[in-house]
Amino acid sequence: MIVGFEELQLKDRYKIMSRSIIPRPIAWIVTERNGINVAPFSYFTGLSSEPPTLIVSIGHKKDGSPKDTLVNIMQTKKCTICSVTPQHLEQMHQSSESLEYGQSEAERFGIHTKRVVEEYPPIILGSPTALFCTLYQTIELGGSKTIPLILQIQKAYLDDAHTAEGFDIDFVAVGRVGKEYCICDKKITP
Ligand SMILES: Cc1cc2nc3c(=O)[nH]c(=O)nc-3n(C[C@H](O)[C@H](O)[C@H](O)COP(=O)(O)O)c2cc1C
């Protein structure tokens, strides 16, 4: 079967993309303006190590207003991206609930945070790694309501318990496959 994306409905495009581009990493993004905002995003991937950049695409709420994470990054130019392990699966998923601006998912869902770098939003306690980022560039997607943001990584938090000498980082991550999740716990060598 060959399907043309032009004539496909948005939900079907999403279905094909989210089941073909797998597994997708999850950026659990912490931003800070009116309180601590936490939300997951999986239109997300690394771009380059020089400059150290990644991309995340953030859409709008059902009422057409920009998502809180987007508002906060545009205002503060900063965010902290935490990695997700199985221990956080439920809270990560809960934090995707659309709350009113200024209501904190961290408070609502008991997600504990800790400030480890003064000038950036806190990390989520228990995340093996976190990336402290500044806004590098926004990309115009032909009038789309989804805004891709290029973020530059300025610092990283690496939990000693998951980091061996030479930045050998090892942890079990949660990825996204369609609307479900997968656990990335097996490594194979060709
Ligand atoms: C695993 C997962 C991945 C998601 N990925 C995205 C994404 O890439 N882009 C997006 O706009 N929303 C994505 N969402 C939905 C947002 O998390 C959701 O709209 C959230 O309410 C945004 O919160 P905020 O308004 O506090 O920024 C995802 C949700 C889940 C559960």
Can you characterise this structure?
The protein is of the alpha+beta class and 190 residues long. The chain has a single domain (10-184), classed as Electron Transport, Fmn-binding Protein, Chain A (Pnp Oxidase, Chain A), CATH 2.30.110. Helices cover 16% and strands 39% of the residues. The protein has four helices and 14 strands. It has helices at residues 10-20, 68-76, 89-94, 105-108; strands at 24-25, 27-33, 35-41, 44-49, 52-58, 78-82, 113-114, 123-124, 129-138, 147-158, 163-164, 168-169, 173-177, 180-184. The chain has a seven-stranded antiparallel sheet with strand order 3-2-6-9-10-5-4. Strands 1-13-14 form a three-stranded antiparallel sheet. Strands 7-8 form a two-stranded antiparallel sheet. Strand 9 (129-138) and strand 10 (147-158) form a beta hairpin. The longest helix has 11 residues, at 10-20. The protein is globular and about 50 Å long. The mean pLDDT is 96. Residues 26, 37, 39-43, 57-59, 67-69, 93, 96-98, 176 line the site of flavin mononucleotide.
